[in-house]
Design goal:
Cyclic Phosphodiesterase, Chain: A, Deoxyribonuclease I, Chain A, Alpha-Beta Plaits, 30 helices, 43 strands, 30% helix
Length: 1196
Amino acid sequence: MIQETYIDFSFPHLQWPAHVNLVYPFVAPEQLPRAQQQIREYLAENLDQETPINIALVQAGAFIQKNNMNVYLTDNGGEDVDSPLVSLRTIVLRALGQGPARSTAHLTVGQTQGNPLISQSYLLRKARLLPDMRFRVGTLAILIRERTTGTLSTDHMRLYGTIDIGAPSDIWRPHSSDYWVKTPNSNLPTLQSDSDGGQQEIISDDHEVLAEPALCFDSTENKWSAYTDGDKGQTGIRELTVSSYNVLVDTEYPPDHDRDPLIVSTILSNSAEADVLVLQEVSDDFLSYLLRNSPDVMQIAQRYPFVSHGPPCQNDLGPLPSLRNVVILSRYPFSWHSVSFHRKHKSALIAQFNGVATSSSVESEGLVVAGVHLTAGLTDGSVATKKSQMRTLTRYLERHYKRESWVVAGDFNLVTSTYTIDLSVKNQSISSETVSTLSAIEDEIREAGLSDAWSVARVEGVDQTSATESGDLFEGEEGATFDPQNNRLAAGTTTTSHDRPQRYDRILFKPQESLRIVHFNHFGVPEMIDGEQVVASDHYGVRARIQSTDAAVSNDVNKDLSSKQLIIEHRRAAGVLADTTSLHSVLETHGMFPNEKQAGEWRDAFASLQNVLLGTSEDSNQAQPDIPLVIVPVGSYALGVWTADSDIDCLCIGTISSKTFFKLARQRLSKAEIQGIRILRKVEASTGTMLELSVNEILMDLQYCPAPQIVERWHEFRNIPASDPIFNLSVLSLRKLKPYRDLLYIQRTLPSLPAFRLAYRCIKLWAVQRGIYSAKFGFLGGVHITLMLSWVCKKLGHDYGSVTAADIVTSFFHHYAHFDWTNDIVYDAIYHKKRPRYYRSTREPMVVLGYHAPNSNIAHTATVPGLKLLVKAFRNAEQQLCEPGITWETFFGAPSAPRQELNIPHGVADFLHAYNNFIKIDMQFWGRTLAKGKSLVGWVESRCISLVIDIHKAIPNSEVQIWPARFADSDSKDVDDGKDYQGCYLIGLSKAEKTASAASAEEKQVAKQALDKVLDRFLTQLRTDEKNFDPNISWIDASLVRSSEVRDLQLDDREWGIYATELDSDSDDEEDIIDEDTEDADDTKPQRAIPQCPKPTSKPLSSTKLRPASDVLNRLRWDPSLDPSDYIIGYEDRFLGAKETGLEKWKTEQTDEEFIPQHRILYFKRKGGEDGRGDIVWERATRIDKIFGSGLGNGD
């Protein structure tokens, strides 16, 4: 204990050991042999060796020497002649022929530099906490003070010899002449000096460390004492909860005790309860309060009966080694030791729990928990010091605990906010090399096999941290534990010049294939009480619940997650691309961020629509709507990635039927025309009805989902698990809810929503510029990018921790440029756990799946030529981002157009110059009904993708690209002027890049004939469609033209959002419109019908409606507990009568050649059965339903 205190608080501890001076100065070095012999002989004659010399150092004191204050221990005798130390000194002086001289024999335990009063009081107080030091003197030591040579010359004490004065049992023999100096392992490197503190950071000594047993609370003696049954390991512990909390030391001296009760209350709170608690910044006074003086000490001792350090106020324990200490409290016994970082008062606490979280297939003695508190600050020196400290710890753990699972918890003091880092570089507070050092620290953590518990819990959906509103955060601020903006104590202790949130506190774990995170949360967050903020510390605590599983089971569970096709390589953005500020600035230049005015307008527009549909208003006293409805945004606006040209997708959930809702909505919206709300179009499709609206010139799409139970439990909807019976809805209702449920899951599990948003805008701008952003034309859409990007973000966060937006973009392009689109599908393996059962058709070259049921391919409109263009674009982007000196400005180009006279963007100009031949699809409209004009354009637009497919089939060795926008002649006039409107779509044609040789004249002629046939068939289909094409008011044509004929075209920027008084329903889907009564059947109460006499039947009629075949089909397909290959569908063939086919072979796509309408399904049955004929699980004729229990249920 004395030596530890001496090392921590005495500057020359490496030059000489802790000692008590008897005679100093002694004699000249050349007289040492004679003096030694003279003293030995004199003591042998005048000192009774049978009488022990017992010393008791029990009193602390201090004296000033030069500019330093020395704190020491001495005996009670002081200068009294009866003091054993004084008596021994007098005898030695007499042996040398000297008389007695006044002196206070003492043992120096510490020094303070500069003589500051606070440090003096603090160190003297710590010395008084030392236990009484009692020992028997058996040997006197002779030390020689020497000065070392070289650039760093210092004074150094060397042991010259000893004089034995006691009994043989009391004699001491040193093993070396400088035993107090620890020699570092010569094989380990020495780090450079820290420019801030002048301290040298050295890799930890690799010497044998003697572990100390934990202290255990003895309730009978009411004290903490060493645990003596340490060899009894804990067995069968498969789950462990670890918490970490920085309790904040306010001042050195005098200590502030005001927060102590609040800290203890926080530690005992349910949200902080753990099996292992790692505390940082623990002072002597607080630990004495926590483990000795607190009213809750018994509760603390019951919850954490084992501690690494006991209360310093206990007489036999002594003080903590530093002002700010790491202390571990535990429910289970452990042994521990320190690993010094060779920086004053900095070390890691290593605790091992025998038998805890061990795996049967991995040789392990037990879980290792390391508590850390790295150097604070954001300077070049402090960041370099943090790197060396982290390297010291990880290398030590790798050498000594290679087979054990690790948990490293504490305050890492690593700045995570990219805003703070970028601004510090801009202000020259840190260098760019320091930014690289911060990244290198994260890399070393990952290379050591450590995973961030928060990142893993976040992406796996088991994180319950309370975070700041995501819209207010920058990258690296999600999950912050130090938040000066919302924590008044943090605002007073922040070491940066900005008040941005930082995720300083972490729990890292090395699973060794047997650990997984099942829960993560914060505790100790601020609360408002009587209008004042109450918070215990400037840091929030973090807690992780960790489960230990058998390695074989763990490998089986994570088989899909680690498979080759699901590995996403972390590709770092090189050079200036890594500058997030530069990326943000370029995107802002290209208009990818809405300004404050636009944000307010969009917000007000959504609020206006809400008020109108709910029947409330801001001025009205009516707080609740007259009809229970919930209106939420979905899509890009809800995700926070919208731009000024985005519309707002709205979903309304209510208790009434769809027909009633849209009738009511049209009435209320029509009355709200004075508020700037206009109905543009009513769209009928297989997925239900949708209204296209304009609210103060902002476009909105409104859809409705009838789900009374959802509305009733809306306040808890975010936390309802997918397995809850509340989601036992019709397929159409589930399909309407799916976007919002997927949105909530994405928001909840993204490691960094700000980084995702920045990366999303980057990829969207890239796709828009290259003409590959349009889902209806078979390219990327907003949902495509969201699902593809979210998987990349989550996998990178899961495997690598914090990743910047620039790195995410680079990794995104690399991953999908090499993705096997033919055999693999894009899905979130963390959510699905194993590859989803999705049966792709031959018409689906690209499959991107979402999350919740019903699972459908988001990329169902993708085409083979479109996918080829996407892959080509991905690879070009990957190559471009790897070019030396590339910048974001170069990657995106200037926002201004090269052809100013026509105002054509770069991407359009490149498209027009990239192809020599184009298919030009002309449209002309001269009717007066504007709704029909828009309908014509939309109808032709929806058929263009089929033309692209047919062209590629007819000319396989060609590259076919349609630009996802209309073109018009420069002299084209608006429709509402009463003159002709003419626009067109362009499809570029060229030879595929991989074509080996030029086509012959004959081959060209064959291709031309095939193309003419495709165009003729396309025009015939359009012109013969009487429902959508009227030759009296419109005209359509498709022709092959040269590039010279289209170079003068410009983009058609005509807005079709003109108020249409005639709300004719338009269909955007060629499928038959499903009766909305089917959608509402399970969600609305049946209306009373006129009683009728039923026809005679052999079976009684059931009042319960039979679930439709579509519901049963989807349940059998998507329920993970059911196997579709076990079921057969019986159906009515129009020519052959009743037939059967396997459920897996059933086609639901109307364009499929084997498509059969679902109303022809007769029954579903399970294969096999007692008679081999199979068991009927659903039958239309008998109204049996063993799947949902509707109709007659089991038929009993």
